[in-house]
Amino acid sequence: MGFERDRLPDVRSYYESEGLKLTKGNKWVTTACHFHEGSDSMRINLHPGAFVCMAGCGARCGDGLA
Fold first, then answer.
1. 51, β-bridge pairs
2. What's the pLDDT tens digit per position in 3-14?
3. What is the pTM of this model?
4. What are the beta bridge partners of residue 61?
């Protein structure tokens, strides 16, 4: 039995359940960076779940699973 990626939760719902307040958007949304407590510096791609901090703290991830 292999891993079923389609059984992962919706990306927006997952991040919001973790306490993040996401801006409106269909692909990229903005939120506070919880790695360095930066206000509105984290960008999240809602399709693969990738994120990157634009303030330069180095936080980034290729997809929601990683």
1. 44, 61
2. 777 888 899 999
3. 0.82
4. 51
